[in-house]
Amino acid sequence: MASFERPGMYVPYPARCNPQVDSARANVKAWAVEVGILPSRETPDAADVWDERKFDDMDFALFGALQYPDAPGPELDLLAEWHTWIFYYDDRFLRAYQHTGDLAGAREHIDALLRYMPSTPGEAPPSPGNPVEAGLADLWPRTISTMSPEWSARFAGLTGDMLEEPLREVANARVDVVPDPISYVQLRRKTGGALWTAILAEHAVGVELPHAVESSRALRVLKDTFADGIHLRNDIFSYEKEKLAGEKNGVMVVEEFLGCTPQRAADLVNELATSRMQQFENAALVELPLLFADLALPPDVCLDVLAYLQGLAAGMAGDFEWAKTTGRYNENGAAGESEPSTGDPATLARLGIIRRVAAVAPPPGTVLPDPEAEQVDLPDFHMPYTGGRNPHLDTAYSRVRDWAAEMGMLGSGVPEWDEAGFESANPVRYAALMFPEAPEDRFELAAKWMTAVYFLGDLMDVFERRRDLAGAKAMSDRLAKFVPVGRPGDLPSPIGPLERGIADLWPRIAPSMTVDWRRWFSASVTRACEGSLWKILNVVQRRVPDPVDHTEMRRGCGLEIVMALLFYAQGLSLPAGKTARELIRTLVESILDWRVLFNDIVSFSREVETEDGGINNGVQIMRRFLGGDVAQAIELANSLATAQLGNFERAVAAGLPEDRHQVRGVVDAFRTVIAAELEAHLLVVPSRYATGGTKVEPETAPWRMVPWPTGLGTSAARIGALAGAGGERA
């Protein structure tokens, strides 16, 4: 008996089947025999992974025909063979390495495969020693022969990531912790293969996206939502199969994290898949035209991008159709389901980009719950760390205030930027919490940067209230020129207090820092501006953000700039090794994700009282998604925030390099930042976050800090068990 009734799914695009499907079936099977995936007289042992009956039942040729309905015959064969190969790689890896625990053999296998993707066409790979190597050795030259070196490098990178992911899954499986749903979506995106499919869609439609387009937010959203929608729906289809295999998927993650029934979990995963697909549509209809205008793309490039968009839409529909019928997920297929069309290529409108064809009525993204302006009870915040305070606060305060006045920030007309407002917000006090060990000269300069970050945020709020997306975009574009990665030479002539401030600060800090640090700092300024532009666009549209998009875009907040400043202020160094660098990036993302949720809880009452009703507030987003009350939404947001601290400590425990002293100081400083954020929000400058602006003393605070996780999903997230009370010092 099934664990739940499969929910009705949002299907905005009709599936179409490539008319060459029958010939593809014959050709793909012959290829599978040739490379040893299927047994033959010469390779009878190939049946250890798949026999012919299982191969036919899964029907990867149909998968390709539904994914690429307009591809000509030879192209369809190539693409279907790629998908056959990657599915085979996964199943063989599971049998040969994951079930046996042979991680050393798995590492050797992956390293060998990477040699079959040479960057130069015609370069001879090694002689293949197994079906996976034989398949890749055949597919790679056939694929890159018609593409540029730049595209080939992108494809090699994504294919390499795909090969690595099963190894990471094995490592993650050894940590018996239920991931939070948002983190799961992001992890699944890396492991599920749909991003890899998205780059093959370029090959299928015969276009290469220019770098400026491919690296833009609009295209990133289209590819990410394409992947997330496919993966989440596949998790619903494959629930029974993966449960029997003892594997985790999205439905099980939600079920365990929320402590709900399988039916409720499946319904929520389906709603999240719907939300991601609607985000795809919004990016296509709203963000893509803005990108075309911003880059002044010529018509032929715009048409190429639209052809690629149509390819993604067809792929989403095709994957859904295949998942309903394939023997990989269903023993008996889906009897009675309508057959996909094999008609002529559809226009964007017929594909549903303009006129939706929906299986279920989706919750509109423009609908907000009625705001509840009353003061809410704050939850028990999990805080295992303690902070400090810089002793140079008092001596630096007047100098930083005078600098802000000299730059023109005080008295600029930006709300609350006068003497009284500066004292109330007090960015210098905030800096004292963030940089407790900075020497006096570096602390003062870092506090001035903190003041500029505050001013940037408040200036963006002015643009948001005016719905002035164009003005905010123009300011953001100019601001990037004041933090060049190269050593600062002649900066543009500054206009306004913010540019004057950064033009004064950047030449004083950049020369003493490495190129890698300058690259990070410059990118963090860009991401902070992009995050603000995203918020303004939501307000202009009156659109409640998608939960995943909210998490990822709100990472672009001023805190990342502050974390980069931490390295300057306290004399820390970015580690040189790849493993250590990846660890630092993971830790930064966990802190940013925690901070967004924590900030949205604390500022909820203030934000819902605005005329926009807190559109960009995470608690409001949880209310819309769950359909519950404020208390339930706050509980979920707090549980997700707590989970991010769990992610932080698990990354520290699992990811520290052998040379631990290299990152010991960084990890301890990051823990101090987390504690400082909580103290700044609730004790030092609550006027920026909560209604009323009254400073709350610790003994009368309407909340408690607890050194252990509480709330949803925390029974399996015992941070203390991983790292001791307060986290084991690295």
From TrEMBL:
Single GO MF descriptor: terpene synthase activity
EC number: 4.2.3.-
Similarity remark: Belongs to the terpene synthase family.
Source organism superkingdom: Bacteria
Taxonomic placement: Bacteria, Bacillati, Actinomycetota, Actinomycetes, Pseudonocardiales
InterPro entries named in the record: Isoprenoid_synthase_dom_sf, Terpene_cyclase-like_2
Segments traversing the membrane: none
UniProt KW keywords: Lyase, Magnesium, Metal-binding
Major enzyme class: lyase
Identification of the protein by name: Terpene synthase
Alphabetized PANTHER family for the sequence: BETA-PINACENE SYNTHASE-RELATED, TERPENE SYNTHASE
SUPFAM superfamilies linked: Terpenoid synthases
Pfam families with a match to the protein in the record: Terpene_syn_C_2 (PF19086)
Cofactor(s) this protein cannot do without: Mg(2+)
